[in-house]
Amino acid sequence: MAFLLLLHEKMRLRRQVNKLTLKQLKYGNRLDRMEKNISRVQKMYSSKMTQLEKQAQMMQSQASVFFQNAMGLGMQNQALNPWNYAAGGGVTSFVVQQTMGLLKNPIKVPDGTDSDGKPKYREITIAESRIQGMMQEQLQGTLKPQYGKDGNPQNTNQDNLKGYGNGNYTQDEFNAFSSAMQQAQWNQSQAQSMCQQMSTQYQNNVSIWLEAAKTQLEAEQDAALAPLEAEQTDMELDKEAVETQLAYAKERLQAIEQACSEEIKDAAPKFGLG
Description:
The chain has about 270 residues and is mostly helical.
């Protein structure tokens, strides 16, 4: 009778071990899928984060280009050829436009000194065709004094020294052009400083925007992961409970099998050997 009870318990425990083992395998598979889902969500938001950073970097770069082009300091319609060191003396489009604009109005040129020895100036007006000609020669590197074979400036008279560039521009024209270009170069320096300030301010604003966007994205990621991670935790707890039950059932089964073996051994006929 005891043996039958042990055998019945053994069969019951074996069925329980099989059921718990199946549950353990199912929980393991479900946890694997859950980990993949969590990893997929994390990768998706990591990709979005990278895209945000690249977008911010692109916005900052494009803004710098926009500010430079808007002020005539960029590559757009640029007169400067950085590979030709001689031609134009490194004149940029900004300086060209500023110089041309300044020369369209009357401009002051030196006119000796007054009775106190202070420099005097007078205004001159230059025809637009001659302004364009001087600028063209400036860009070609030919706007400079022309000298004769005797080493003296060509076309000299009492009032003006003619012979600047191939267009035979006067000293007054040359001085006016040089003065306008100096002013244009100073204006360029100011524009560069302003452009840098605008670019820096925009970059700072984009950095603030990026941090806010990343914070919002992280919050969205946390919201998307929260139910998955909660479900994963519940599964892990359930799996641990099943594993505990399985370990106890296996231990009980081993004890019952041991008891059954002893009962069989005791029940076996000894044929007078006992």
